């Protein structure tokens, strides 16, 4: 697929994605190298980002870090469309009932963003990065959300997937996805058996917005070695209930079976 | 002062500022009108912002709202540089001890951003928008932060102020600020007597970062009709203590008196 020429705005915004919990500060050269842009372009972008509060530059070390503008935008978004506040109690209850790591993701502009993670208080558990975007093809959340998109939108997003092979069980082509989508629609949930992480079995249901489109997914990421028929049954029952309740709480519309 | 020509990146980022708790959704024409740009420019900017998760477009109404990307950036920033988590207990204690609305602001890239507000549980109190940028010239927080900047940086930011006249007591020129800066440095706190809101007396101290520069301010916004000598004394004592403690908690350096 031909890559469209990026606008300067795209470049500037994409620079923000290089900052992470693991790497919260960067110098100009480092950032230019990571992004693959020349230093002049990066400097011009960073100046505009700094003028608008998205970036701060340490006055001594001259290294860049994220600014405070995203905090205000995040609070405006959450106060106007309180999604995280609605998700949290459902995810917490799911974790209590299954005693495995539970999480919610939100589908936004073709991406699946981890929104909230709830860890069980036990020594062996799945540990998740609460700040990551999830790959659609390798996770139960991605599969169940894609399965419930209108076919034209699904075709569009599947066309953008890179099908990175995370484990021996990762599906690596659009064709391999079709039966997974069909099964997810039929069952109302998707399961990913060690296709993203070895030793993790994910189960997910979608929740739906007022337009009847999937707004995101809630999921349980369970340790594979203790995943038996009983736990499988508990997880899918709890998820199906939670998915319905969450859709209602969001004023959403469930798909007709 | 001549206004510099804005880059496309500046334009795109400035569009985000039109979204607020009061106005969380907007159509293209409305946004173009508010920003004063032509529709083609706004559409190009919004497409780039949407591709990067900063904006979502409602698939039915076609209206724009803020996306989820800022939430992730805000969490990365707060996890790497946990400023809000440090500020909150200090602001809460200040509210308990003074029984008036307390808040913290952060100085970032020449702006003063409201970071955290704590309301007392009483009927008559100052109500603050926790999402607003504060005007430097009219607020105690702005005055005390500007007062402690190096003279060259202070001259630069004062040159950008618009000196909007909020009340009859708002200072409206750079010259009117000088005695306020000098007094704030001498006392260690600034007071704004109904210069931003009629009926509100603000008192603020700066807190300092590791470079010895002001990182922000903590303040008490008190109802003017009950502001007497005793409350004034309580507020300034509590603030001076809190400012020192907060500076230490941030590994900061206090200015030499």
TrEMBL record, chains A, B:
SMART domains: HTH_ICLR
Domain HTH iclR-type: 6-68
Superkingdom field: Bacteria
InterPro entries, sorted: GAF-like_dom_sf, HTH_MetabolicPath_Reg, Tscrpt_reg_IclR_C, Tscrpt_reg_IclR_N, WH-like_DNA-bd_sf, WH_DNA-bd_sf
Protein name from the UniProt record: DNA-binding IclR family transcriptional regulator
PROSITE patterns: HTH_ICLR, ICLR_ED
Native source species: Sulfitobacter undariae
IclR-ED domain ranges (all copies): 69-252
Single GO MF annotation: DNA-binding transcription factor activity
One of the GO biological process terms: negative regulation of DNA-templated transcription
């Amino acid at each position: 697929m031909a890559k469209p020429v990026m606008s300067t705005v795209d470049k500037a915004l994409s620079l923000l994605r290089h900052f992470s919990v693991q790497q919260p500060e960067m110098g100009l050269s480092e950032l230019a190298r990571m992004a693959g842009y020349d230093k002049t372009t990066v400097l011009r972008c960073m100046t505009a980002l700094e003028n608008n509060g998205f970036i701060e530059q340490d006055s001594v070390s001259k290294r860049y870090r994220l600014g405070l503008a995203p905090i205000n935008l995040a609070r405006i978004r959450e106060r106007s469309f309180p999604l995280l506040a609605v998700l949290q109690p459902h995810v917490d209850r799911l974790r209590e009932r299954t005693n495995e790591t539970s999480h919610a993701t939100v589908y936004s502009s073709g991406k699946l963003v981890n929104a909230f993670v709830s860890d069980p208080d036990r020594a062996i558990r799945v540990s998740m990065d609460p700040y990551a975007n999830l790959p659609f093809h390798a996770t139960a959340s991605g599969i169940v959300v894609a399965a419930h998109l209108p076919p034209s939108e699904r075709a569009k997003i599947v066309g953008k997937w890179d099908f990175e092979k995370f484990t021996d069980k990762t599906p690596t082509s659009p064709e391999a996805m079709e039966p997974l989508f069909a099964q997810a629609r039929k069952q109302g949930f998707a399961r990913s058996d060690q296709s993203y992480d070895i030793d993790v079995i994910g189960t997910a249901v979608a929740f739906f917005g007022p337009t009847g489109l999937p707004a995101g997914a809630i999921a349980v990421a369970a340790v594979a070695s203790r995943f038996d028929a009983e736990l499988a049954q508990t997880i899918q029952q709890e998820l199906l209930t939670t998915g319905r309740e969450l859709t209602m709480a969001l004023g959403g519309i469930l798909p007709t079976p």
